[in-house]
Amino acid sequence: MSLATPRVAGETLTWRDRLFRLRDEILSNANFQRFAGGFALTRPIARKRAVALFDLCAGFVYSQVLLACVKLDLFEMLSRGPLGANELATRVSLPVASMRLLLDAATSLKLVQKRSGDRYGLGPLGAALLGNPGVLAMIRHHAMLYEDLTDPVALLRQERGAGYLARYWPYAANIAPAGLSSADVTPYTALMAQSQPMIAHEVLNACSFRDHHCLLDVGGGNGAFLSAVAHKYPKLKGVLFDLPAVAAQAAERFRAEGLACRATAIGGSFLSDALPKGADIVSLIRILHDHDDAPAMNLLRAVHRALPNGGTLVISEPLAGIRGAEPIADAYFAFYLLAMGSGRPRTFDRLRAMLMETGFAEVALKPAGMPMLTSVVTARKASKVDGADVNYT
To answer: What does 352-381 look like in DSSP terms, one character per residue?
Structure first.
């Protein structure tokens, strides 16, 4: 087929489109696949792509191997020293053959590693997981996501009612979230608190709070992030604003950590209530991507009203389209939020447009050490002298 000849009558294709179409026809050709797999120069590339394709097909099985290891506390047991399959099988009440099957599977995924004397120890990925309790908590939590993804096409067509994740995150579709009880909010608050130390580390590496006097953490959960910032900046005051039942847990945390003299927790709903004023910097840590555009814009307007001229907004969340981290936001979080029933990952360009529309300026994407975990965006409340006084009512 000629590159200049479109396949469909009336179809207009750019040269780039035609090159991609030619590539697709070549790669999908069975004869070419056999040739590439046998020819010495192309064999490594063909094998690499074959492995990548198989990983996509087998990914769910890999995730279940990981989940089994976590549910059985395998990494914790192996952290104390190598153990044999028989000993491990006895400890977790599995048949020895099943234990060996799991260990061999986990070894292939670098979660565990064979040691001397027919024993097993931590693999490089298992050791890394052991140092990240937030990731381990999310792996346990993923059982609900897997249930919701049993029929992904039905999920995409929205043919199903609220699934496991929608019920787990009750605020997502609740018309009166401020009325949720402590029992309603404790599970997801605890889950988010597990990963907040990792997020706080990324944010504190990306931006400084040194020149600010008061931080307002909106949707701050049980106060894990605000506590981390307050401990690093002992002169900084803090205000946490979250649902009443969540704010009560944060207040208890501040008392336990000796921060009650400069950290306050206020209950309310940022979807309907005015935000507390007096802070010169506001943080939205994994908040905006949980909400659709309309409530997200309302929240940004509320933050703009609460800040003084020149005040700073810090946003931390996974962004779509970040080079090297595309699957995290564009695949994982996109489907996770779809199952949750609220929100979506946004590109930096989209987030910048939303911020500028609500009156913010100097929007910047900060360098992040772990963009697959979170990106950090800062913005400043523009004033009239900036020529950016926007009517957002």
So the answer is: HHHHHHTTEEEEEEE--S-TTT-EEEEEEE
Distance CA 341, CA 360 (A): 28
CATH superfamily of 146-386: Vaccinia Virus protein VP39 (3.40.50.150)
| Contact status, residue 241 vs residue 264, Cβ threshold 8 Å | no
In CATH, what class is 43-130? mainly alpha
Comparing C-alpha atoms, which of 284, 224, 233, 276 is closest to residue 254?
224
**Residue among 129, 58, 69 at smallest CA distance from 101:** 69
What global pTM score does this model have?
0.80
392, 357 contact by CB (below 8 A): yes
Rounded to whole angstroms, how far apart are CA atoms 374 and 285?
A: 9
Average pLDDT over residues 112-141: 91
Question: Distance between CA atoms of 329 and 350, rounded to whole angstroms?
Answer: 14
Q: Please tell me the number of Cα atoms within 13 Å of 356 on its side-chain side.
A: 11
Q: Are 341 and 162 in contact (CB under 8 A)?
A: yes
Tokens matching residue 246: 């969540």
Residue 355, CA distances (Å) to 133, 172, 303, 304, 392 in order: 33, 22, 10, 9, 11
Q: Break the chain into its structural domains and give their ranges.
A: 43-130, 146-386
Treating both helix axes as pointing N-terminal to C-terminal, what angle do 43-71 and 96-108 enclose, rounded to 10 degrees? 130
pLDDT, one tens digit per residue, over 54-74 is 777 888 999 999 999 999 999
- Mean of the per-residue pLDDT values of the chain: 86
